[in-house]
Amino acid sequence: MSKKAFRPDVDAPEWKGGYTPYDIIKEGTIALLVVALLTIALAVVFGSPDVKAVTLKRWANAAPVDFAATALSELNGTSGTATYGAPYNKNATGQQLGPLQLAKWVGARIPIDAATAFVLNPLRSLPNEPTLSTDLAQWKTASNGTRQQWMKSYTKAAAKMTFQAGQVVVSANNAGPVPVFINDLTQMARSGALDQALVTSNGFYTTDYTLPLLFIADGSYLEDLATAQHLTGEQWGMMNETGSYPGQAWLWLYTFWYQVPPFSQSGNGDVLVWGLMMVLTAGMILVPFIPGLRSIPRKTRVYRLIWREHYKQ
User: Which of 53, 137, 211, 233 has most Cβ atoms within 10 angstroms of its Cβ?
Assistant: First the structure.
């Protein structure tokens, strides 16, 4: 029987040199203690970089006109959530990877009717509001065409919307109950009741913040805060913490692609970056199985640089 040929890309020669004792438990314990002490010391010196949470109450009190305008976009179906498509509704195809309509395949897994979820249902939860109850009943019995006319009239006048004496002021004619809806929802948000109503819409005890997060994202207040803190996608926001603190540096490869075309200019940027990262990840996983590529460390002898003390002996 002939001797098996040595394959440098697969087989490794038997080590016949010396060995050096190494206490991994001791080294690991020392590393753990050093990192723990550094973490505590840095936390004491610098504190937490986290800022106060953005809530509907904070938004409605800081920028009531922006909140009211966003509430109107939810009611008339022009908001980002209302027109997003899957997984919230079927009003758009959603992001796709080339001819693959991935979002559409997933479907409306979190069905949200923006007008009902963000405006009508929260208003229905308000107690002892006879005028509002009458307006909600009027909305319910009105035809779709009548509702559209009301919203069209109010939307046209809302270009000059103001907030005076704690009230949303819009000079709109033939707007039906829409002015009451927008004003009462704004008051509800300013009191903090809307935050609670959206969180508990599916039960009293819940940690599902989908609705308030989507509502806030549909306005411009959150985006303005993010811009001021250098947290938008154009500002490498996925890698930043609030203020001047560094964030998750390990995300650099992912967020890098958002800065360059065609990803930075495509409406399908998220799914395109995801697809590219899947390809790159698969390439990294398959490195040990790719002939030639897997031999680069051995042929460049980089290992002798890494373990130089060992090879000196």
Answer: 211
